[in-house]
Design a protein that fits this description.
The chain is of the alpha+beta class. It has helices spanning 57-75, 80-91, 172-175, 187-197, 202-217; strands spanning 10-14, 18-25, 33-39, 44-52, 101-109, 115-120, 125-128, 135-138, 156-157, 166-170, 226-233. The strands form 2 sheets. The chain has a 6-stranded antiparallel β-sheet with strand order 1-2-11-10-7-8. The protein has a 5-stranded antiparallel β-sheet with strand order 3-4-5-6-9, covered by helices on one side. Helix 1 packs across helix 2 and helix 4 packs across helix 5. The longest helix is centred in the first third of the chain and has 19 residues, at 57-75. Strand 1 (10-14) and strand 2 form a beta hairpin. It contains 5 helices and 11 strands. 44% of the residues are buried. The radius of gyration is 17 Å and the shape is globular.
Amino acid sequence: MVLTQVDPPRATRAGSSIEIAGLNLPAEERGGDFCDCVPLDRDRLAVAIGDTCGHGLRASHFGTETRARLEALLLDGCDPGSTLRRVNRELFGTLPDGWFVSLLLVELDARTGTLRYASAGHTPALLLRSDSDRIEELQPTGPALGIFEESDFDVAEAGPLDAGDLLLMHTDGVTEAKGPGRQRFGTERVKRHLRRLCSLPVGLFVARLVDEVRRFRAGHRQSDDCSLVAIKAFELCRIGT
């Protein structure tokens, strides 16, 4: 399933243990943000969110190219780090000078809750642990795509998801949204709303968080593309239990 611009956000379940919702709001008619969800086998799936610098038609073109390359490599069986390395190599030299693409690629096992990821300079995803109210940040594991011809991307593991854990993947159009006085929405405000809204179904969670960003802008124009993907775990069935 491809997560695209939908209103209200589209939600889907992977197996019986993961629920996903995504929303893409371009600043213009077309935008450079993209979200994708690619089933890898019966239990595993890859979820990606990307941000092409700039917005509008040109950014949308390069975002579409990046997503197509990404899907082809994932379906070919590449792990997150190798996928980003090969996408970077293919993009280098094709992007205009000064352009780049940030991209976060998460691999989930819907049966065991295992979460691995690689991030090409992307805004850190936020993982709320339901048992402690603790929020972990999934930091970049390599540079943005298209800057260097040869770049390596480590694969990190965030630890297994437990029932109730909520992962929020987003682009910087969320954190950098500007309100009165050009104040930014910011990561800390996202974290506060993540804790406050986490009990909602993921589709409603995404819609409510977007409403909070709009309310913060207080009528000011949306200056950048804005995308979110929320992933919630429940009823996990771990191997050997």
